Amino acid sequence: MSAALNLSHEPVTKIPHGKVAMWTFLASELMFFSGFFGTFIVLRNTNYDAFFEASHHLNWVLALVNTFILIGSSLTMAMAIYQLERRQNGQFQVYLGLTILGAFGFLIVKYFEYSAKWHDGLFPSQDNHTLFYSFYFLMTGFHALHVVGGLIPMLFMLFKSFTNRGYNHPIKVETLGLYWHFVDLMWIFIFPALYLIFP
Predict the structure, then answer these.
(1) How many structural domains is the chain composed of?
(2) Does residue 75 lie in a domain region?
(3) Rounded to whole angstroms, how far apart are CA atoms 145 and 110?
(4) Quick one: average pLDDT of 35-57?
(5) Domain annotation covers residue 102
(6) What is the pTM of this model?
(7) Nearest Cα residue to 191 out of 2, 61, 76
(8) What's the pLDDT score for residue 125?
(9) Which secondary structure element, helix H or strand E, spans residue 64, and what is its range?
């Protein structure tokens, strides 16, 4: 295994290399999302009327459902890590499976939300909605890609847990858990910024 993928403990900090790499990656992602939010706020304040009108076409109920789904999946991810550390493989499979269902549930709800927007003709190419919906699809779409990015290794870990050797790498699952909690946190900021900030 290459040094970049080595998850053994670093001799000085006693922190696994993988967790350090994940924290570094999440810091870079935080700066990326901060750019989105900063630009959105500036343009919102200079185009308030257009943003106000466009935002009222969003379905905040579906977004709220997705918020609860992600919060619940963060809890089940934490429980999956806890059960794997206790070598309870069956319980690990249950909680990781629930986390995966949460990820799929989020994407399914987002699919229906996107479909409704396109059906109603609400997309960036409209003259009066271009700016707002450019940010809407960019921010929520980029976040959805992060959900898919977390879903793929979760599916791999779940599949490996059903093999004869099982999946006994709690540090790797904990590292993935850091990523998943970050995805949840970003949605908690995206949700009010897009759906609730306008009166």
Answers:
(1) 1
(2) yes
(3) 11
(4) 84
(5) yes
(6) 0.86
(7) 61
(8) 64
(9) helix 60-85
Say which CATH number the domain at 151 has. 1.20.120.80
Question: Is residue 76 predicted with pLDDT exceeding 90?
Answer: yes
Structural domain containing residue 169: 31-196
Residue 160, in any domain of the structure: yes
CB 181 within 8 A of CB 77: yes
Q: What pLDDT does residue 52 have?
A: 82
Tokens describing residue 28: 């870079």
Let me know if residue 121 belongs to a domain.
yes
Distance CA 177, CA 171 (A): 9
Strand partners, 9: 16
H or E element that contains 50: helix 48-55
Q: Which residue has the tokens 């206790």?
A: 86
Question: Rounded CA gap, 165 and 163, in Å?
Answer: 5
Under the banding of pLDDT at 50, 70 and 90, the label for residue 3 is very low
